[in-house]
Design goal:
With 204 residues, this protein is mostly beta strands. The protein folds into two domains: 138 residues, TolB, C-terminal domain (Neuraminidase); 63 residues, no CATH class. 0% of the residues lie in helices and 46% in strands. The strands form four sheets. A four-stranded antiparallel sheet has the order 1-2-3-4, with no helix packed on it. The relative contact order is 0.11. The C terminus is likely disordered.
């Protein structure tokens, strides 16, 4: 256990790292906020109430390039994406991205390309937008390869995205970053049950 976080977290749902800044960001659905701490868990700090916009903070992404946080949050069938500075100030409600998301569980950013990716668990769809939440474009269900998406990772170098899915036979979706070429990985295997996360490792 990271002792610095002991007693601070109620129900943590998602985590993102700012390795350049030496920080981790954890969403907490009990306190409806984001906890920032050093990578060793020390100096934890709640970043405020984000203007009361956070309900169930299902995912978080860090844009270290532009020093921004992106938080996916929902309650029932009402979802939104929130953007803020790394210290929790400068809160912006990007809303439901023009009606394209109702229950967002995934959010990811591609800072250099200026893209925001959001997957909707209820609608089984993916959309992309610019980092301000504009120019929204639906990618649909990635050629039928989404079923209750829960978490996402981007492999920008290879131009691919990977999404964990709760629904159906519990599988991983792989697709191109433009939404084409969607395919299901591991659907026939019984080892995958209710996976809630996926990551991409880049060896050096």
């Amino acid at each position: 256990m990271l002792e610095g976080l002991k007693g601070i977290l109620g129900r943590p749902l998602a985590i993102a790292l700012d390795t350049a800044g030496g920080a981790m960001y954890v969403t907490d659905s009990t306190s409806k906020t984001v906890i920032r701490a050093n990578l060793d868990g020390s100096s934890p700090k709640a970043l405020g109430d984000f203007g009361g916009l956070i309900d169930t903070p299902s995912d978080i992404a860090v844009d270290s390039t532009h020093e921004k946080l992106y938080i996916a949050s929902f309650i029932g069938r009402t979802g939104r994406v929130i953007r803020a500075d790394l210290d929790g100030s400068g809160v912006e409600n990007l809303g439901d991205l023009g009606g394209t998301v109702a229950q967002p569980l995934n959010v990811a950013v591609e800072p250099l390309a200026g893209r925001l990716y959001v997957a909707d668990n209820m609608a089984n769809t993916m959309c992309i937008a610019d980092l301000e939440g504009g120019n929204v474009r639906s990618l649909g269900n990635l050629d039928g390869a989404l079923h209750e998406p829960t978490h996402m990772a981007l492999d920008v170098a290879s131009g691919r995205m990977y999404i964990a899915n709760w629904g159906g036979d519990h599988f991983i979706t792989r697709a191109n970053l433009d939404g084409t070429g969607g395919e299901r990985l591991g659907e026939e295997r019984s080892e995958l049950y209710y996976q809630s996360g996926v990551g991409v490792y880049f060896p050096f």
